[in-house]
Write a structure and sequence with these properties.
- The complex is a heterodimer of chains A (about 475) and B (about 700).
- Chain A is built from 19 helices and 2 strands.
- Chain A has a two-stranded antiparallel sheet.
- Chain A starts with a helix and ends with a helix.
- In chain A, about 75% of the residues lie in helices and about 0% in strands.
- Chain A has a domain of about 160 residues.
- The radius of gyration of chain A is 21 Å and the shape is globular.
- In chain A, helix 5 runs antiparallel to helix 6.
- Chain A is mainly alpha-helical.
- Chain B is mainly alpha-helical.
- In chain B, strand 5 and strand 6 form a beta hairpin.
- In chain B, helix 3 runs parallel beside helix 13, helix 4 packs parallel to helix 10 and helix 6 packs antiparallel against helix 8.
- The chains are: A mainly alpha (about 475), B mainly alpha (about 700).
- Chains A and B meet through helix 11, helix 13, helix 16, helix 17 and helix 19 of A and helix 5, helix 6, helix 23 and helix 24 of B.
Chain lengths: ~475, ~700
């Protein structure tokens, strides 16, 4: 069991190093590394006990021995971690497959193979760091992997090395790292007061300190997950290749923030109502701000970025509801980590495919694409319905649970949270439908009429992801149920 | 095989069909034919389920097929008599639509549109429609309801090239999405009281809420009603309907009219009759349902009158006819708590009207489709005299038109007759309802008027020259059969109303306790040759004997014909006499546009700049522009906070970097200053603690 987990962490790192060094065949190595992680995850599932949890923390640090820390480094697998792990590994695999075709001369938007090796290196390293985040047994180790993801994201966002992307990479690094400082502060206070890095240690703090420590972690999570007021780095980070946007900015990295808070919320059942309210209110504010900024976007990717911001708001919203006492709401939020990852990931892949075949991401320039690229149209609408919450696609399930949670919390708070939430759901629905119509139906525009063919790897990723929008809620429901047994 | 298994297999057949036709999507003829086979098989399966249920009672699963973790909900199926009734309708309509679509969807006008967006979607649509009426768990009801909406949306936007179609699809999806969001909320409100999504639990929750929190229950019922009214096209939520129906291809419109809109009624009956406990709530909501129905009758039908397009005219009649159904059902819900015998008559009347409506409305849509097939247009003004090339269709269109207008002895009359008389009888307890009845009665005349326009401009009058494909004979058999079947049903249900009414009564009565409603024989009598003899427990109230009347009528016609023959007056065909003026036929044609001009004038409203025609409250599209307003500037945090912050910080750092000048002397100076500062600090600290 331990071997599998170590291998799962090391395999992508090894892959990263090899893929970064070889002269030829970097694509093959990267795909092998991704497949390896996928297979190891499958092996992991076969070896898990029925409650799907496993924990080993064997590694100590001598200088912290005095403080009676029982191990610092190790692995923890539980249903919550598995939600994250599955998203990271499965989407990571698809992302790597997709990127082998996307970073090529056939790409009309960026017809270059330059930097492919660099991309694979950082991407695989990133996959490893995210696996580390998902499997961390305590906040200390989580912090280390958390900052590793920040570092990788800087490199990946700056991939094209033009002015915009360098600036965006720097901005992302600065903002998420500043948030990370709050993580460190919270960690130090926690350790000094309780002598423990456990997720559940927050409960041992005095009520006043508990509020502050939670707030510090929250700030870190807000920055990482691009919430108001720290959301501005995410839209700019769209200067990255679409593979990066899909993986970092929809599926994995931005989920690290919400993952941290989910860990805390699940492990500490006695967080104050006020903390939950703060999380909930900021989530709703984020949703509305992001929603409002939808209307200004012409670049499809930026639109998706704002949508991601809003949907991470959903997850926070669910966690807030959970802290305020609604388990159903919390389940909804946690499910949304996976449900949103799949849906939004698919949308990003579609936008990547659109720019691949047509060279454009502009809503204004594109129209009638369904005629020339039907597969992208089908995949895009699937992804769209998944994030808009049309059953039976993935987003619906989490939204339904979140709505139950909101009404479950009830009272004035419930109503005040419900109304903006509903507003966001409906207006976002209208806007995405409008965009979908504009881009895919109607008269075929010149840009769309020039659309070329999709390579197999891209079609493969689109099809698999479309299927996953139906499978994800089943898996997510199964896993969240186990969290609360 | 038990009925539930058979049902599941039949619906899975449709899903399988969807997959197969999707894969073979490029072979148009083949997929069209294959889909008919799948539809036929599933319809046979479902119809046999319906017969089993009607003969041996409710069929249900004992354990849910799927259980949803975290919330108390499971996919539980139960086919009771009401479900069976609707299943029967849906099965019939689905097959007819599929049969009709085989040739219709291969028309040239659709040649560049992929049939992958039609037949597979139609199958998913009907499969989900069937599940909507058999699930007994609100959560899954909701899911299938939404899948149905999704599929129907794709059917609406089938013609993706057209801007208006896209707009209609958008409007449709958005409005129904808002409505389902409301339904969401309502269902959750009740769920949180009862702790489960099953219908039984909802019933108990409503029971307890009606005592503990009536306000909240009213809110939940309002939301539910709005959601169902939206689907049914009841005003003011039905604004999407005319656009969506007229944008969808004819078989899809016909499918919507025959199944989806009717599910709004199913929902209302399920919630307000079956689940909501009989109480004051039924009374209040009954009146509201009936009122909204009456408004729809009025507005929908009057607006239909002035339409100049076949599909639009029919769509507005959908609204009007749904109004009749809602009126009947609303009265029924109202009387549940007052006078059950009246309640069941009104409810049966509503549902009976629904069945009749399915028959003649699908038939009329098919007629319109035949006109498209022949002439390629849905515009009344461009065609005329089509009875020469579509003789059979013309006859059928007349039958269906007379039926929808409520002309005896056709089916539309028998159900309207029940609605009218229950409203008249209701006047004793509530005069308001009499008002509803009177409006319904008079609007029936407007219906007739608009169908005079429909049939006379399309099929009669002079044959229009610009019918481009006029050479072709009558529409092919696969398009003819559905029309004939529907027209025949309209006639049969008119002449022998007791036949369908028997099943309707049975299924409604089964929703409540066994002895809540009086038995059927005591209400409708037994010996009236398939006619009706209503008796509300105080002697015979009204009698309708269509068979006798039809025979008498036929006899009279026979006599008239005998007179005509015996007179043996000569007939000669000649050109029309235009009072000696020389006109071409085209010039003097009485076009649809000219019909009912006074009506158009009467309902023209003009207030200042605002001007509109008709009574229909359509929602316009507000043009919203997003400028660089205050909120945008506030949310642009980069601009007013982060960028200045970083810039200042950078400027500060620049100043620091000025110290790194590369001049050794300067570095020495920093060293000395630093040392001095350190000493001072240490000294001060030491002074406090007293050491050193």
């Amino acid at each position: 069991m331990g071997t599998i987990l170590i291998l799962l962490l090391l395999f992508p790192i090894l892959g990263a190093v090899i893929a970064g060094m070889v002269k030829k065949g970097t694509n093959v190595i990267a795909v092998i590394a991704g497949t390896g992680a996928l297979l190891l995850t499958a092996a992991l599932f076969l070896n898990l006990p029925p409650d799907l949890s496993f924990r080993t923390v064997p590694v100590q640090l001598q200088w912290l021995q005095d403080h009676l820390v029982d191990g610092l480094f190790g692995f923890q697998i539980d249903p919550l971690g598995l939600i994250m792990l599955l998203v990271v590994v499965v989407l990571g695999f698809l992302n790597i497959v997709y990127s082998t075709a996307y970073l090529s001369r056939g790409n009309k938007e960026h017809p270059t193979e330059e930097g492919r090796q660099r991309h694979h290196f950082w991407m695989l390293l990133f996959v490893a760091s995210m696996i580390g985040v998902a499997m961390s047994p305590n906040l200390f180790q989580l912090y280390i992997f958390w900052e590793m993801t920040t570092l990788c994201s800087w490199a990946l966002i700056s991939h094209y090395r033009n002015e915009d992307s360098l600036k965006a990479g720097f901005k992302a690094l600065l903002m998420t790292f500043s948030g990370g400082i709050f993580f460190a502060i919270g960690l130090v206070i926690l350790f000094v007061s309780t002598g423990s890095f456990e997720f559940s240690a927050v409960s041992q703090l005095s009520p006043e300190l508990k509020g502050w420590v939670f707030f510090f972690f929250l700030v870190a999570a807000w920055a990482k997950s691009a919430q108001v007021p720290f959301f501005t780095w995410l839209p700019d980070a769209m200067a990255a290749p679409t593979t990066v946007s899909m993986y970092l900015h929809a599926a994995a990295m931005v989920k690290a923030g919400v993952f941290l808070i989910s860990r805390l919320a699940v492990a500490n059942s006695d967080l104050a109502f006020g903390s939950g309210l703060l999380v909930g209110i900021m989530a709703v504010v984020t949703m509305l701000v992001a929603l409002y900024l939808f209307f200004y976007q012409d670049d499809l990717k930026r639109l998706l970025a704002y949508s991601t911001i809003a949907h991470l708001g959903y997850v926070f919203f669910g966690i807030g509801l959970g802290i305020m006492g609604s388990t159903t709401g919390l389940m909804g939020g946690l499910m949304h980590i996976m449900n949103h990852g799949v849906g939004k990931g698919l949308l990003f892949l579609c936008v990547g495919a659109i720019s691949y075949v047509s060279g454009s991401r502009s809503i204004k320039q594109l129209s009638g694409l369904a005629k020339t690229s039907p597969l992208i149209a089908v995949a895009f609408f699937t992804g769209m319905f998944a994030i808009l919450g049309i059953p039976p696609f993935s987003g619906f399930w989490s939204k339904f649970y979140l709505l139950i949670g909101t009404l479950d919390v009830g009272g004035t708070v419930g109503i005040l949270l419900l109304i903006p939430f509903l507003l966001e759901i409906i207006i976002a629905f209208a806007w995405f439908l409008h965009v979908g119509h504009k881009v895919f139906f109607g008269r075929v525009s010149t840009t769309a009429s020039n659309a070329g063919k999709l390579p197999f790897a891209i079609s493969f990723a689109l099809v698999v992801m479309s299927v996953l929008t139906l499978v994800a809620p089943v898996v997510a429901l199964f896993l969240v149920k186990l969290i609360f047994i | 095989m038990n009925p539930i298994q058979l049902f599941i297999i039949s619906t899975l057949l449709l899903v399988l069909g969807a997959i197969v036709t999707w894969i073979l999507g490029n072979r148009r003829e083949l997929t069209s034919k294959l889909s008919t086979v799948f539809f036929a098989l599933s319809s046979i399966g479902v119809l046999s389920v319906v017969f089993t249920v009607f003969s041996s009672g409710t069929a249900q699963l004992n354990a849910p097929l799927i259980e949803v973790p975290g919330i108390d909900s499971g996919l539980l199926l139960r086919i009771d008599l009401l479900s069976a009734l609707f299943l029967g309708i849906i099965a019939l309509v689905s097959f007819m639509v599929a049969l009709y679509a085989v040739r219709y969807m291969n028309l040239k006008i659709f040649a560049d549109l992929s049939l992958r967006a039609f037949f597979p979607v139609l199958m998913i649509f009907f499969a989900s429609v069937m599940y909507v009426v058999v699930v007994v768990d609100m959560f899954f009801f909701f899911i299938f309801w939404e899948i149905m909406t999704l599929a129907s949306y794709f059917l609406v936007i089938f013609n993706k090239r057209d801007k208006d179609t896209l707009r209609a699809g958008f409007k449709y999806f958005l409005i129904t999405h808002i409505a389902t969001a409301l339904m969401f909320i309502a269902v959750i409100i009740i769920y949180l009281q009862g702790g489960s999504f099953s219908f039984d639990a909802l019933e108990q929750a409503m029971q307890s809420m009606s005592v503990s929190n009536p306000g909240l229950l009213h809110l939940a019922l309002l939301f539910l009603f709005l959601a169902f009214a939206t689907k049914a096209g009841i005003l003011p939520m039905g604004d999407w309907l005319p656009d969506a129906y007229s944008s969808a291809p004819i078989p899809a419109s016909s499918a919507f009219a025959g199944s989806m809109t009717k599910l709004g009624v199913y929902g209302v009956i399920r919630i307000f009759v079956d689940i909501l406990p009989v109480s004051d709530f039924s009374q209040t909501w009954g009146i509201i349902i009936a009122l909204m129905g009456t408004i729809s009758i009025f507005v929908g039908t009057l607006t239909a009158l002035v339409q100049e397009e076949t599909k639009r005219l029919l769509s507005f009649h959908v609204i009007g006819q749904m109004g009749y159904i809602f009126l009947g059902v609303g009265m029924g819900v109202y009387f549940l708590n007052v006078q059950p015998v009246l309640a069941i008559v009104a409810l049966s009347a509503g549902v009976f009207h629904l069945i009749n409506n399915v028959c003649y409305k699908s038939c009329l849509f098919f007629n319109a489709g035949s006109v498209v097939w022949k002439t390629g247009t849905t515009n009344f003004n461009l065609v005329g005299g089509l009875h020469r090339v579509l003789p059979m269709t013309a006859v059928i269109a007349v039958i269906a038109s007379l039926s929808i207008s409520g002309v005896p002895p056709l089916s539309g009359f028998s159900s309207k007759w029940l609605i009218y008389q229950s409203s008249i009888r209701a006047a004793i307890t509530n005069p308001l309802i009499l008002g509803f009845g009177i409006i319904a009665l008079f609007i029936s005349i407007v219906t007739l008027a608009s169908f005079v326009k429909f049939t006379s401009t399309l099929f009669y009058g002079k044959y229009a020259d610009n019918n481009t494909k006029a050479k072709r004979k009558e529409v092919p058999l696969t398009m003819m059969i559905p029309q004939i079947v529907m027209a025949l049903l309209s006639i049969i249900f008119g002449i022998v109303p007791i036949l369908p009414l028997k099943y309707v009564h049975k299924s409604i009565a089964s929703l409540l306790e066994a002895d809540f409603f009086p038995p059927m024989q005591s209400i409708y009598g037994t010996d009236s040759l398939g006619g009706l003899m209503t008796n509300y427990g105080e002697g015979v109230f009204a009698v309708w004997n269509p068979l006798l009347l039809t025979l008498v009528g036929l006899f009279c016609i026979l006599i008239a014909y005998a007179f005509y023959r015996s007179g043996s007056a000569p007939r000669r065909a000649d050109t029309t006499w235009y009072c000696g003026e020389e006109h071409s036929d085209e010039e003097v044609r009485y076009r649809a546009h000219s019909f009912y001009l006074p009506f158009k004038k009467m309902f023209r409203i003009r207030i200042g700049k605002y001007e509109r025609e008709g009574v229909y409250p359509s929602i316009g599209y507000p043009k919203i522009t997003f400028g660089n307003n205050l909120f945008k500037r506030i949310t642009d945090i980069d601009k007013w906070f982060y960028d200045p912050l970083v810039n200042r910080f950078m400027a500060l750092m620049k100043r620091f970097s000025a110290t790194h000048s590369g001049v050794p002397h300067l570095y020495l100076l920093w060293l000395i200053i630093g040392t001095v500062l350190a000493v001072v600090v240490l000294f001060l600290l030491a002074g406090h603690s007293g050491h050193l």
